[in-house]
């Protein structure tokens, strides 16, 4: 199953999550810079696993499943840690909630559409959303441990709000696609799963 480097990189991103979370508990500035380094490494593997899978023709069903799951787990874990360690203001928690709700909704839509054998390609704007989101989260991990004159925390929070707006827009786009296919789906209703 994990016989390709892209899949191994994706799994390494999932395995990095506990280490990133644990690094928040390090003393002083280590609690910012170590999780940032691990998070940045995970972000790099995200780019490389997709690039290598396409370049080497090693795209697999496992990779298609694991890659978005790894991304969502990583983002959710970091958001939870940022909230737990009060590295984002209370009002910015709303942007984090928007991002997490969208991720759950899009995952459900993709699962539904996969049953209909409908592929929903990732839009260029969704890729930009992910980039802005990851950069903002990285900045927020550093937070108050960054240079004071750069207002790191404020920059990160603005980035998270920009990501939340892009999240709503791209999420709405996915939802419209899903609703079109739901309206066209004339299969008998099935019992829902939890």
UniProtKB/TrEMBL annotation:
<dbReference type="InterPro" id="IPR043130">
    <property type="entry name" value="CDP-OH_PTrfase_TM_dom"/>
</dbReference>
<keyword id="KW-0812">Transmembrane</keyword>
<dbReference type="InterPro" id="IPR050324">
    <property type="entry name" value="CDP-alcohol_PTase-I"/>
</dbReference>
<keyword id="KW-0444">Lipid biosynthesis</keyword>
<keyword id="KW-1133">Transmembrane helix</keyword>
<dbReference type="InterPro" id="IPR004570">
    <property type="entry name" value="Phosphatidylglycerol_P_synth"/>
</dbReference>
<feature type="transmembrane region" description="Helical">
    <location>
        <begin position="158"/>
        <end position="175"/>
    </location>
</feature>
<feature type="transmembrane region" description="Helical">
    <location>
        <begin position="32"/>
        <end position="53"/>
    </location>
</feature>
<keyword id="KW-0443">Lipid metabolism</keyword>
<comment type="similarity">
    <text>Belongs to the CDP-alcohol phosphatidyltransferase class-I family.</text>
</comment>
<comment type="pathway">
    <text>Lipid metabolism.</text>
</comment>
<protein>
    <recommendedName>
        <fullName>CDP-diacylglycerol--glycerol-3-phosphate 3-phosphatidyltransferase</fullName>
        <ecNumber>2.7.8.5</ecNumber>
    </recommendedName>
</protein>
<keyword id="KW-0472">Membrane</keyword>
<dbReference type="InterPro" id="IPR048254">
    <property type="entry name" value="CDP_ALCOHOL_P_TRANSF_CS"/>
</dbReference>
<keyword id="KW-0808">Transferase</keyword>
<dbReference type="GO" id="GO:0046474">
    <property type="term" value="P:glycerophospholipid biosynthetic process"/>
</dbReference>
<dbReference type="GO" id="GO:0016020">
    <property type="term" value="C:membrane"/>
</dbReference>
<dbReference type="GO" id="GO:0008444">
    <property type="term" value="F:CDP-diacylglycerol-glycerol-3-phosphate 3-phosphatidyltransferase activity"/>
</dbReference>
<comment type="pathway">
    <text>Phospholipid metabolism; phosphatidylglycerol biosynthesis; phosphatidylglycerol from CDP-diacylglycerol: step 1/2.</text>
</comment>
<keyword id="KW-1208">Phospholipid metabolism</keyword>
<dbReference type="Pfam" id="PF01066">
    <property type="entry name" value="CDP-OH_P_transf"/>
</dbReference>
<keyword id="KW-0594">Phospholipid biosynthesis</keyword>
<dbReference type="InterPro" id="IPR000462">
    <property type="entry name" value="CDP-OH_P_trans"/>
</dbReference>
<feature type="transmembrane region" description="Helical">
    <location>
        <begin position="65"/>
        <end position="85"/>
    </location>
</feature>
